[in-house]
Write a structure and sequence with these properties.
239 residues; alpha/beta; Ribosomal Protein L25, Chain P; Alpha/beta knot; 2 domains; 6-stranded parallel β-sheet; 5-stranded mixed β-sheet; 34% helix; elongated
Amino acid sequence: MPRFFVDPAAVGETHIRLDPETLSHIRVLRLGPAETFTVTDGTGIDYRCIFSDSQAQIIDRAINQAEPTIQCAVYLAFTRGERMDFAIQKSVELGASEICLFPARRCVVQHDEKGLLKKLPRWGKIALEAAKQSGRGNIPPVTAASDFSSAMVQAAKVDQAFFFYENETQQSLRQALDQRPDFQTASLVIGPEGGFTEEEASLALTHGLRSVSLGPRILRAETAPAAALAAVMFYTGNL
């Protein structure tokens, strides 16, 4: 069933006001007067609707069932082109509550403030389309930290903050999860193509993150976030 997101202010008692882009999309789909589609206002409520007089007429409403029971933010070091797009898309599909991009020493690409202002809207649209496709009730925001330290400070403000370090040999993600299985919020920090430096790993631990391993194999920068998030979602019963 087609899914569209609208601003909460557009939702009325019986009808939902549709913006021009959504109207255009509905017309392209050529939905008939009896065909239903889903509209969500990004607060976790789904509205089953039919198209009526350029508006969405509400048939019924229900709590969205696709949102995870935990809040899990994904922190991604800058990667190149399609790899970043893929990582954002799959993170949204798998249930990330938000995505924060950050610079690291070994990033192949770096983005200045001007460049980020151009790219963030595009990455946000990728998140929007992934949220539609996967039936999400919310659109995870895509933001960017100004530097590595700021990203680590922000990532640490949760119940479980995991720093995925390829040189970690003492603690796996599963072992770390078992030590505190009743968490409600988490952060997953994923490095760039070249991995984290020893200095960055030390700084992350100083800020309160826990160094963990994803296993004996070195995963690509775009594969690691999907693997880590899928593991956490499975562990918490959200997959």
